[in-house]
What we know:
By secondary structure, the chain is mainly alpha-helical. It has one domain (39-157): Cytochrome c/b562 (Four Helix Bundle (Hemerythrin (Met), subunit A)), CATH 1.20.120.10. The protein contains 7 helices and no strands. The longest helix is centred in the first third of the chain and has 29 residues, at 4-32. It is globular, with a radius of gyration of 18 Å.
Amino acid sequence: MLDRPACLVFLMILFSSACSIAEEKNNxxxxxxxxxxxxxxxxxxxxxxxxxxxxxxxxxxSTIAAGDWQQTAVIGKQIQASYLMKQNLTDEQxxxxxxxxxxxxxxxxxxxxxxxxxxxxxxxxxxADVVSFYFYKMNDSCIQCxxxxxxxKFTGFSASTDNH
Length: 164
């Protein structure tokens, strides 16, 4: 057990680290804030994928809270593999999409799907703490993406009200 001075030092270091991370996220956010101008056919596929992800994220809240690790793993794997857009795009549309999407958007998308896979693995070994961590990372990826690329849809992330 830590004595009181050591505990205070630890808390100060933790707070300082959190502030540095928040500042770094804010800098990345300010550099990348833009709306994606996608063709209508691709927008429709993206919307379909986002609705499927949203449903999965909502289900995860219930399965995690209930300790239903089997179902949590299943949902995590479904989200990890939920590349509806990629599965439904023509080669020409896929090339066009990779040309117009910002690199940071693609990185956020890859991270999100990676975190879903990690959540699924943690659920398979019934590690509630790690499952919760990866659910947080998935949600944080959503927030970063929406605040950077979809402010017109998610107005709570507009520059005038952004608290990042």
